[in-house]
Amino acid sequence: MQKQYHELIAGRIYFGGASDIQQIADVEHIEVVVDLREESTGCAASNPVLIWQQIPLGDNADQPQAPLFKDAIQAVVSAYRDGKKVAFHCGGGKGRTGTVAAGVLLELGLCRTLDEAAAAAKTIRPVVNIKPDQREALEQLYPNA
């Protein structure tokens, strides 16, 4: 099976779409899944030892999403800093996932500007497509980036 997911931080933080999570769990032995889908009804991987955390971000939200993006970024960063292997995903691994990827890179200090973080996320996972309202959320969270 070809790998469709990507490593944001080698060996520690993975990202992709919902259909990638079972493979990430099986191959990478992740411990935490951060599910960004508002529409989710459960973990996209069947593994009883996985910690599943849902941050209900809408793909085409009509209300401000910055607080939820902050929660998602912090969930990933917290798991990483706790020494856990973590994966995060939305439906297709493009918009919400790309936004969180850029935020994680900023939060960890691996990128200094929002443009740099967005470009880095897209370089790692070419399907990343941060929508204008998602970028606006990042601008609110990282006004100096």
Automatic annotation (TrEMBL):
PROSITE patterns reported in the protein's UniProt record: TYR_PHOSPHATASE_1, TYR_PHOSPHATASE_2
Short name of one Pfam family: DSPc
Range of residues in the leader sequence: none
InterPro entries recorded: Dual-sp_phosphatase_cat-dom (IPR000340), Prot-tyrosine_phosphatase-like (IPR029021), Tyr_Pase_AS (IPR016130), Tyr_Pase_dom (IPR000387)
Tyrosine specific protein phosphatases domain location: 67-136
The name this protein goes by in its record: Protein tyrosine phosphatase
